[in-house]
Amino acid sequence: MVGTRRRLCCTESKLMENTQQLWKFNGGLKLKPNKKISNSSPIAPVASQNHYVLPVQQHIGEAGEVIINVGDRVLKGQTLAVAKNLISASIHSPVSGTVKEISKQAVPHPSGLNADCITIENDYTDEWIERNPVGDNYNHMSSHDLRNIIRDAGIVGLGGAAFPTAIKQTEIHIDTLIINGVECEPYITCDDVLMRERAREIISGADIIGHIIKAKECVIAIEDNKPEAIAAIQKIVDEDATGFFRVQPVPTIYPSGGEKQLITVVTGKEVPINGLPADIDILCQNVGTAYAIHKTIFDGEPLISRVVTVTGKGVTQPQNLEVLLGTSMKHCIEQCGDYQDNADCLIMGGPMMGFTIENDQLPVVKATNCLLLTTTDEIHPANMSVHMPCIRCAKCVEVCPANLLPQQLYWYASAQNFERVVEYHLFDCIECGCCSYVCPSQIPLVQYYRFAKSEIWEQEYNQKLSNIARQRHESRIIRMDTQKREREERSRKKREMLNRKKGKPGRDELDVKKDAIAEALARVKKKKEEQIVEPKNMDNLTTEQQLLIKQADERRAGNKQLKP
Ligand code: SF4
Ligand code: SF4
After folding, report:
1. For 356-383, what is each residue's pLDDT tens digit?
2. 441 in ligand 1 pocket by Cβ < 6 Å?
3. DSSP strand pairing (176-181 vs 217-223)
4. Which ligand is located closest to the Cα atom of residue 408?
5. Are 476 and 482 in contact, with CB atoms under 8 Å apart?
6. First-to-last CA distance in the chain?
7. Is the shortest distance between the CB of 156 and ligand 1 below 6 Å?
């Protein structure tokens, strides 16, 4: 399973064994993990349901292009929407059945806006498309071909960000691949159980990624509060003789699972502002993503399911489920014994980075790592609605892992001064929620940042649209102008032809005559101007000449006055 092309030389290998130093990032929080309530049982399957709703855009980037029609029969794993470009992802049918609807529907997104969705009616036959797994052959395939397979399989980062995976792997000759098994946010345990149960597949996926980017080493980083996961991964890594893999437990500090923070912890390097990990020869991928890549390469399956943690005091049997994308959240909650009586709030994601869901009929999407059900006695940043003014205590600054000034960002975001929020590096904010968590005024700071980001994106989008409209208008004017000139030229040629037939002079002869007349007129005008004697020249004339001119002027003046 594990290739040998990156076997390290003895010196390098020994060096790595000794290089286990870890670094710290600024800020962060020690939070109550609340993991045990959902990680004690194995990953459970979810019963099929009648309809699956697939939002066309479940990822960061451009929505895919829908390639099926209402009424079409589709097979399990069939592509419903294709990625338009590299920053896009395909969508596949999670079941076999019929396309019932392509329409705008509510989707799980902080904006609460409707978006294009495809509804598939399940025929319960589970008939797959033809699958063509690559298998061990991937070792002989080019990075380019493997990236295309990953893109066509619709694989995105499954840690929650849902960034198309293939685009992250375009840099080859990356030194260090970090497989992120940190899962630092409280309550969420989907990566933990995945590592415990499917360690071999995760390592296989990591090896495929390593092959694509020609990495020299692979560090599997896992928080030290997941001993079972560490042991399971270590067991598989020990079977590998290449020395390519290294399991690295990291301290339990939130948000050490953030990409930039984890890179700092593991390597001591900092991703530059407005830069990418690839700028410092590092690539970070989630364990769930590595697992999905293994499934695509070895089983020929696109991304049609994911592990979701259903947890919190508001659900009867918290656990992890393997959920087909498009399954309703309500169906998942029912699989876990349904709501507790005092259930209050449904959050997609964890208590720090998640957002509230008003309608439990919404579908599970690629970014759904957790459904957290809180109760009336719990308060968390995601559902704070009443807050007090900022008292400038700077607690938010102390905990910010991105070294930002959260109160300044809040100030400018609430004043809708978007230029200033950008100057204060809003887009470096990872929305970890640490600032909101410690704020004594209970200001939902992250919500302000999300609002500012979405406004800026919308402005940029509108600007793009208006640029397109302006360009189209300008092209239309140029086109009309060209057409007008062409029309005139055609009618001129026609006139000339007619004139020639009638024996009249053609254009050139007419032009010569016109030019001659214009020159004659110009000569007359010049002569007249020379005849007008400026007052300053009067000094050079004799008294008699001056008198004559004066009389002529008086006559001209008199003539003018007489004119009606
Ligand atoms: S923690 Fe809250 S109150 Fe304190 S400075 Fe930050 S925003 Fe203001
Ligand atoms: S949410 Fe953003 S501003 Fe607040 S602590 Fe996290 S990174 Fe800093």
Report:
1. 999 999 999 999 999 999 997 775 554 5
2. yes
3. parallel
4. 1
5. no
6. 109
7. no
| Ligand 2 near 381 CB (within 6 A) | no
- C-alpha 256/C-alpha 185 separation (Å) is 9
| d(C-alpha 186, C-alpha 349), whole Å | 10
How many CA atoms lie less than 13 Å away from 46 in the CB half-sphere?
32
Distance 377 CA to ligand 2 centre (A): 26
Q: What is the pTM of this model?
A: 0.79
List pLDDT tens digits, range 36-64. 999 999 999 999 999 999 999 988 778 88
Tokens standing for 161? 């960000």
Backbone angles phi, psi at 270, to 5 degrees: -115, 130
Task: Give me ligand 1 centre to Cα 458, in Å.
Answer: 28
Separation CA 552–CA 410 (nearest Å): 84
- Listed in sequence order, the residues at least 6 apart from 363 whose beta carbon sits closer than 8 Å to its beta carbon are 52, 53, 54, 55, 107, 108, 117, 325, 326, 327, 328, 329
Q: What angle do CA 186, 189, 192 make, to 5 degrees?
A: 125
**Ligand 1 contact, 109 CB (< 6 A):** no
Length of the chain: 564
* Mutate-to-test residue for ligand 2 from 430, 436, 449, 450, highest number of ligand atoms within 8 A of CB: 430
Axis crossing angle, helix 406-414 with helix 445-502, rounded to the nearest 10: 50
What are the residue ranges of helices labelled H in 102-226? Answer: 143-152, 165-168, 190-197, 199-213
Amino acid occupying residue 34: N
Is 201 strand, coil or helix?
Answer: helix
Q: How far apart are CA 480 and CA 489, in angstroms?
A: 14
